[in-house]
Amino acid sequence: MASLETPICDFGWKAIDFDLPGVDGKRYNLASVQGENGLLIMFICNHCPYVKAVRDRIIRDVKELAQQGVGAIAIMSNDPADYPEDSFENMVKIAQEHAYPFPYVMDETQAVAKAYGAVCTPDFFGFNNQLALQYRGRLDASRKEAAPADVRRDLFEAMSQVAKTGQGPTEQIPSIGCSIKWRAA
């Protein structure tokens, strides 16, 4: 399990559309998930200890950001052939167990992860209402274990700023997590 860090935010980079199946039986694209004040696209999975450590915080932050007009979606791009815990059936189970307040979709071909340049789970992409990238950083100081409860909420604060001003913070700390599990070429 290789740990990787996300690259620096490429401010203004435009979100790329997709059409992916959700665990709820619906299909999702940018227009169906974009909020009035922005969009948070998260690359996560079921098995990654970095994601497991912050799953409850992701849910909390997405719920609070929704109240500020920020939409959200979680994309699972790992190869489930090598990581059965990340199968579509297990995605359905995890989303139901944790009552995900956002669509959880599968990027079976991994084309979306490649188009976005996703490198790890979790990997967060925060867009303004023009779908221009404004945040590519961490959720908070958590790693494989959750940070203390009173830790600074980097992602939440950044996306709140994006919702209000359309601009993300210039100082961002990269996210860290397990590498995306790419299919063999």
Task: Map the helices and strands.
Layout: E1 3-5, E2 20-21, E3 27-28, H1 30-33, E4 38-43, H2 49-66, E5 70-76, H3 88-97, E6 104-106, H4 111-116, E7 120-121, E8 123-127, E9 133-135, H5 154-165, E10 176-179
Parallel strand pairs: 4-5, 5-6
Antiparallel strand pairs: 1-10, 2-3, 4-8, 7-10, 8-9
Helix pairs in contact: 2-5
How does this model look, in words?
With 185 residues, this protein is an alpha+beta fold. The protein is built from 5 helices and 10 strands. The strands form 3 sheets. Strands 6-5-4-8-9 form a 5-stranded mixed sheet. The protein is globular, with a radius of gyration of 15 Å. The mean pLDDT is 96. Pfam families: AhpC-TSA. It comes from Nitrosomonas stercoris. InterPro entries: AhpC/TSA, PRX-like1, Thioredoxin-like_sf, Thioredoxin_domain.
Tally of structural domains: 1
User: Could you tell me how far the N terminus lies from the C terminus, measured between alpha carbons in angstroms?
Assistant: 19 Å
Strand order of the largest sheet: 6-5-4-8-9
**Whole-number mean pLDDT:** 96
Strand and helix order = EEEHEHEHEHEEEHE
Spans of at least 5 consecutive residues whose pLDDT stays below 50 are none
Overall geometric form: globular
What is the CATH superfamily label?
Glutaredoxin
Based on secondary structure, the structural category is alpha+beta
CATH-scheme architecture: 3-Layer(aba) Sandwich
Reported for the largest beta sheet, the result is: 5 strands, mixed
Number of helices: 5
Percent of sequence in beta strands: 15-25%
The CATH C-level name is Alpha Beta
Give the CATH topology.
Glutaredoxin
State the helical fraction. Answer: 25-40%
Q: Strand tally, please?
A: 10
